[in-house]
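Q: Structure tokens for this one, please.
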Amino acid sequence: MHLFKRSLFTALALASPLAHAALPAACKPGQAIHDSGYVKIGGIEQWISIDGADCAKPALLLVHGGPGNPLSVYENGPYASWTRDYVVIHWDQRAAGLTWSRNAPGEDTPLRLERMRDDGIELSRHLLERLGKRKLVLLGSSWGSILGGHMATKSPELYCAWMPVAQVVNNTETMRVSRDAILARARATGDVATVEKIEALGTPPWTNPRNFGILRRAIRKYEAMVSDPAPAAWLAWKAERGTPKARADYEAAEDYSYIQFIGMKGEGIASLVDMERQAASFKLPVYMVHGEQDLLAPKEIAQRYFDRISAPRKQLAIVPRAGHDPNLPLIDAQARMLASQLGGRCE
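A: Here is the predicted structure, written as tokens:
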């Protein structure tokens, strides 16, 4: 595997954008690291970025949600400040972001959880070698809580801790509970339009891919009433990721990944997810963080899953004023839990 290295803290420019750099010299404590580029993973080139104020700090691999929604597009996203305490790795997964730009799959090419799990494990091994670390902190949100959970159960030796955020457990049950919760709130507030839209969907499981999108819009509306908004600064895109071509690629990847997750007739990846059966036994610590107002992945389902998890250590934080998507209370709760449990070490 080779990584095209772009060091933001040097004045050197590579002669060719396709050049490949050797692994960096051994880390010296206090030395910053800012690298980005393509790594050959799972037979294709996948985009990663590595950022930290001190290369000696623990390395943390972020497994983004969606699928198809990498956080690497943001200039100062939810985890930007974490680079003081961690070496933060963003990974544009297969069929997402800049990985899509380099390797857009054909319309008939399926996206498979097992393939992406193995991608993540292969990347983790590369990062350990590249950064000179024994283990990584693994953090995944929403879809990332599914993918990361499968990575952690298959190869626990690579990680010192697994932190699922906004845990999705079982999509069919989740959609049913979410639908019922939205209907209850809409009826209580006299929101006739939302009641009619959601009732018209029928009861999950659904075979129309549009149904989830309709429910998701209602979820965002009602979560916004009871949770703090994300800082506007988090949502500003990097200049190089905001070009017409880059945005078109991002949207194409998002559309493809959505259909692959939901399926044209309800047969997508989501229909196969059952974390209580597939990923409830861990050989590493599990630190779960969940928004109290999460209507997309309801807290009662996450709580039940957490209770069934076996792990050397486990802890759950239910965060007030937080829904499914990142906001300050949710991000701060993650930072506090990792700081208290790991103490700045990953062993």
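A few notes: Residues 113-131 form the longest helix (19 residues). Strands lie at 33-41, 44-52, 59-63, 87-91, 136-141, 159-165, 286-291, 314-319.
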